[in-house]
Amino acid sequence: MKVLTACLLAGVSLLARAATIPTGFVKAYNQKFMLGSAEYTLVGSNSYWVGLTGLNSTEMNQAFADIAATGATTVRTWGFNEVTAPINYGAYYQLWTNGTAAVNYGANGLQNFDMVVAAAKANGLRLIVTLTNNWSDYGGMDVYVSQILGAAGYHDDFYTNPTVIAAYKNYINAFVSRYEAEPGILAWELCNEPRCTGSPGTQSGACSTANLTITTWAREISAYIKSIDSNHLVGLGDEGWFNEPSSPYYPYQGGEGIDFNANLAIYTLDYGTLHLYPFSWGQTTDPIGFGNMWITDHATSQKNYNKPVIVEEFGVTNTQNQTTTYTSWYSTILSSGMTGDLIWQAGSYLPSGPTPNDGYTIYPNETTLYEMETQHAAAIKARG
Ligand SMILES: *[C@@H]1O[C@H](CO)[C@@H](O)[C@H](O)[C@H]1NC(C)=O
Ligand SMILES: *[C@@H]1O[C@H](CO)[C@@H](O)[C@H](O)[C@H]1NC(C)=O
Ligand SMILES: *[C@@H]1O[C@H](CO)[C@@H](O)[C@H](O)[C@H]1NC(C)=O
Ligand SMILES: *[C@@H]1O[C@H](CO)[C@@H](O)[C@H](O)[C@H]1NC(C)=O
Ligand SMILES: *[C@@H]1O[C@H](CO)[C@@H](O)[C@H](O)[C@H]1NC(C)=O
Ligand SMILES: *[C@@H]1O[C@H](CO)[C@@H](O)[C@H](O)[C@H]1NC(C)=O
């Protein structure tokens, strides 16, 4: 055990010499992120898995080193895993039994997330930490709803039911307070891709942009986070849907219950987020062109509301012309003034095997794509 600890510490300090350990807190100022008086360029990748798939500290360090080698400053990851029975593989942060949640502070709980934060910092990276999920992967919203309200609960009760909201705040309080003074955290995010819709038949019918359901929830939860942690930025983590019902494009029509501009106006949200998946969203006629329009229109909102906006997830799969697509989108990110971006998603070959590949993953030996990330990080840093 002692030998193991010594090895781990030696590994961390070797890496630490190459990277600048983050100190201080990143702030939003007009359309930029700032660290003290210097601009902080938000560029990097997503790695939802780094804390969830049973990696040890050495492997987490390798995964972050592979991201940092592109010139990235920032990684987005999951700060949640709701389970209804203890699991033996990977980490979970909350265990639900009979409608009651217990935060897992143990070695496969928040102590595991401590290792994620330490490994990111050792590689000079800051984390955007998302605190729950619309999707059922790793538990998410539907576990709160079904545990507290049973089978009668609707997916969107997550946004309105007072008992569910209190349970989510309880989790937020445990997680956020633990890292309140931690400069390795860049931002907290309220939810990955919140939508009104759940599985077929699980919507209440009351969740909509007209009823301001998710906007009202986002205002309450973001204000709550600010009340317990004034150091860190707060974002929503949504896909950036506009609320323009007459638009010919589904992502602009507001049907998923998100109004990007209404949310960007929320005082306690420091920046706006958009995701970009033309193939998943039925935008297949001109996926590259759709993406360029989507980026440009969000950059216009960024200017109108004078807040940073980031393309915090984007991708096409390895059968959908990644090189051509990313060349075009990166160029538009740079020219539109879009504040920053995080590609979906990072990958590494580790001693325990390759990290998850959903068809979007870019491993370091995929030299064309990996080199594109590196060139883009340099270009957006140079642009300022
Ligand atoms: C949960 O409820 C079931 C059925 O009422 C009961 O048998 C079980 O002991 C409860 N578990 C806990 C941890 O309270
Ligand atoms: C949101 O997540 C639920 C499961 O939690 C999923 O069934 C639903 O498809 C997601 N919403 C949409 C419209 O993708
Ligand atoms: C708004 O919510 C009410 C219930 O509170 C519901 O009856 C109504 O259909 C909702 N409106 C829309 C446009 O979703
Ligand atoms: C990839 O690009 C080629 C040439 O531009 C085009 O023919 C093909 O349809 C594209 N494939 C996809 C999936 O968009
Ligand atoms: C970390 O995990 C990998 C893969 O299981 C293993 O090869 C390695 O020895 C572990 N390192 C430490 C320090 O435990
Ligand atoms: C990258 O390395 C892995 C593991 O060694 C290998 O399986 C894969 O074929 C390599 N890919 C490329 C594009 O070289």
Automatic annotation (TrEMBL):
One example of a Gene Ontology biological process annotation: mannan catabolic process
Keyword Signal on entry: yes
The organism's place on the tree of life at top rank: Eukaryota
GO molecular function: mannan endo-1,4-beta-mannosidase activity
Domain Glycoside hydrolase family: 45-347
Gene3D superfamilies: Glycosidases
Annotated signal peptide: 1-18
Reaction(s) this enzyme catalyzes, per UniProt: Random hydrolysis of (1->4)-beta-D-mannosidic linkages in mannans, galactomannans and glucomannans
E.C. code: 3.2.1.78
InterPro entries noted in UniProt: GH, Glyco_hydro_5, Glyco_hydro_5_CS, MAN-like
Primary enzyme class: hydrolase
Chief location of this protein within or outside the cell: secreted
Localisation per UniProt entry: Secreted
GO (cellular component) term, any one: extracellular region
PROSITE patterns: GLYCOSYL_HYDROL_F5
Keyword set, alphabetical order: Glycosidase, Hydrolase, Secreted, Signal
Family: Belongs to the glycosyl hydrolase 5 (cellulase A) family.
Protein name: mannan endo-1,4-beta-mannosidase
Organism (species): Jaapia argillacea MUCL 33604
